[in-house]
Amino acid sequence: MTTDHSIEGQPSIAKAALFGLCPQCGDKTLFAGLGQFADKCTNCGLDYSSYNVGDGPAALLTMVIGALIIVLALIVDSAFRPPFWVHVVIWVPITAALTVITLRMAKAALLAAEHRNRAREAGKSDLL
Fold first, then answer.
1. Which residues of the chain have pLDDT under 50?
2. CA–CA separation, 116 and 13 (whole Å)
3. Full 3-state SS string of 50-82
């Protein structure tokens, strides 16, 4: 059985990722800019800087979106044979928009998952 909120007041990871919601209170305070996390939630005070999302989403999304755009560009080129400038006008904005949108969602999903699972860096007490 899946529920929308696993803990009362906390959004699901999918909702937090799609809408930029704070993983603790569900307020729309996760991002301060286009792809930059806010320092903390203005509603509940959750410190977003304590989470380590890293660059994993950027590398993966760059490869996936790059492959998708190349395939689409080859299909368009073989079907219509447009001049090179048409490819630039079409694919550069689409690539940039897809990268920003999906990177934002991936980073938010990782932060929400870290919060939900209480993930943290290993320390000396975690050693055998």
1. 1-5
2. 8
3. HCCCCCHHHHHHHHHHHHHHHHHHHHHHHHHCC
The pLDDT value recorded for residue 6 is: 52
d(CA 36, CA 34): 6
pLDDT of 44 reads: 94
Phi, psi for 21 (deg, rounded to 5): -90, 145
pLDDT at 120: 74
Is residue 95 a part of any domain in this protein? yes
* Residues spanned by the domain of 63: 13-118
Residues 6+ positions from 44 with CB-CB distance below 8 Å: 22, 24, 25, 27
